[in-house]
Input
Amino acid sequence: MLRLALKSVRHHPKRLILTALAVALGVALVSATLTFTSALSRGFTDLFGDIYGSVDVIAEPAPTEGDQADFGADGTDALFTAADVDAIRQIDGVKFAEGTVGYEEGQVLNADGDGPLGEGAPTLIYRWSGIPEIDGSTIIDGVVPAADGEVVVDVDTYAKLDLAPGDTVKVATRLGVKELTVTGSIRFGDNNELQTANLLFANEATIRGLAGGFEGYTDVQVVAVDGASPDAIAAAITPLLPEGTRAITSQDKIAEQVDSFNDALNIIDVFALIFGLVALFVGAYIIVNTFRIIVTQRTREFGLLRAIGAQGSQIRNSILVESIVVALVGATFGVLIGWGLALAGGAIVEIFSGNILGPLLLPGKALLWSYSLGIAVTVVAALLPAIHASRISPMEALREAGTAGKKSLVVRNIVGGAMALLGVAAVLFGLYATPPKPYWWVGAGAVLVVLGVTLLAAQVIVPLAYGLRGALTKVWGVNGKLAANNIHREPRRSANTAAALMIGVMLLALVATFTESLKDTFTSQFATNQAELLVPPTGGPIPQGAIDVIAGTDGVDAVARLAVTSTTFDGETYATSIIDAEIFDGLFDINIDRPIGDLGDGVFIDSGLTALGYGVGDTITLEGTDGTETLTVTGLYLNEGDQAFLVDWSVGQRLESDPTIFQALVNFDENADIQATTDAVTENLKTDFPLVQPQSPGDIEQFFNQALNILLGVISGLLGAALLIAILGVANTLLLSVTERTREIGLLRAVGVTRKAVWGMITLESVVMAVFGTILGIILGVGLGAALVDSLGEYGFERVVVPWIWIAVYTVLSMIAGVLAAIWPAWRASKLDILEAIAADG
Output
């Protein structure tokens, strides 16, 4: 039976080509993503090795729960003193021990000095110690930085700015733009692989000056004498360290950083697997249809095999072997396509971001997941047709080819109806019973509804298409009637074909509904902002000096600052917003239960804290980084989840002396020219604060909408594989149907039906299935998307917005897809020889 299955695939490859292609498309995304993320992991693994591999032990702040991955020094969080460094130097086995002085909040400016060098590339400035193992860099040109205000620059940044010893480089900091004298260039590691970062070295005084002055060291790097044990040194150092710090070997540090980075990459991998599964799930409908038609066409063959002694299990296994062969071929092509996509993506990344990737080799996990998913989905999809084939009796099969009994739809309808009802009940419970996390109920219900409707498609799409037989006949004549009859003849096949397209369109409609609703929510909330100019978050704090420059510009009336700090309350850590309350009044409609003027020297609390027994008039104690305050609750903040506490700037400065400003609102004088004042603000900031770039509310809203459109485009592109597979499914079903209906088509041609009419019949059949699948997908997508938006009301969603434009686009595209999917089957049908077709046995 194994040889028979392999011969069947070898002698009839055409009927399985599109099925294998569907598997390949589903697998390609998984293969491409896993290959790309593996290369990215290798690239950063090499970087971590260059950073930490030349030292033996590192003393550093101990990580706490929720810490993000740290890919460089720890900024100005200096916990180690000079005495700590001296104590570490006295440990047996320590050759060198140097405290790190680093600054990471600045940005190297471009040659014109009006913007950062490289979009978003970090700038790292460290103290030059003169110890090669600790600096990890080699002087290439010029001399080391010795005097205050001198730096050496990595060779790539050096070349980008066309620098030479004696030139100046500008660095934007919180205190303004600092000009530093370049004394030469350095190469980091062997190849200066900095993953797009700009690296500078200076003396200790220069770095402390850039940061506005700070004491201590962010970490201590230790080089051991030859033969000393890093583990023993780390153990000996630990008792000497201040609280909240640790000693770790460099190898353990590298492994920790790699694991942390890989955890982030795993999220991307999971998304790729999800989208790959969606595509393969849609492909499963093609596989079911393909093998169902193949089983019908080979009824006589299976009957003969049963008559000469083959068991039903052998017939079933032979079908499953064919499916495994198809899966292996499809997965192999998918892996190769994915690898090609990863190579292309790597080339593009290198153009825009430099060489941040390791070798783009096919990783074992890409092969494992690709073949596992391809084989599993294909075999599961082929299982039902295989079981059906195993139950064909010899007598039934020998009557006439292609007349295998059709299974009743009763069980399918009952199961589908039950799943749909349970799904609807779960969605309604999530929306109206107010359970915790209602979106989980809506999500689970949505899955059940989709599966249920898929099973019920034969009772929904097929009767609708057949019910339109009169209209189709009236418009397209006999072609319309024949197309409706063909759809009605094989309800399972037609329903599966339309359902595949339905799922793809449903996901697109759901994402579009969610995105449009999110845009509307943002726009409506943005309408409460009355400021004429905003300084949005720029990836770092907004310097107070920049605020002063804006406030001093002619035409500016006031600047309201917004900062966030962490405070401790009742033993728990909460976010506390600090605002210029008096200026905020009238610039932004804060969702509070009374006028902002009532804030005073008190505190507004998150309304959710009322459940803990706190309310207006109570006193609470907040502990900040620089002080503790006992405050009276003077109002409630009604947006739960944004921040727990809201205080005025004067109070906030007692909690944290230098609050980190992350946003500012600017109001102009009543008679000021808005555009002229905006230009003046921008021009004034260029001198000392070029990284601070104010924007109008309209510009920010437009940027946000563009970002959402890009997100929608990316997701639509990922779902495009599923849609393409669905279209291939339509073509595959029609192609196999043409083979199955060869005699019928021959008879139609014999009684006078033209080739053009045959082409039209096949095309119309394709378009009808595509349009009905699209309409049902839109209904489900919009409905479930609306339910999801409604269930997320606690996160600020206000109302559902139906993406009518996208619905129209999807409908038109479905008609075009139906026409395109029918080209090959229609061409095959129209080219059939009449006599050979009539003589065919099914």
Q: What stands out?
A: Residues 66-76, 401-405 have pLDDT under 50 and may be disordered. The radius of gyration is 34 Å. The first strand starts at residue 57 and ends at 61. The longest helix spans residues 250-297.
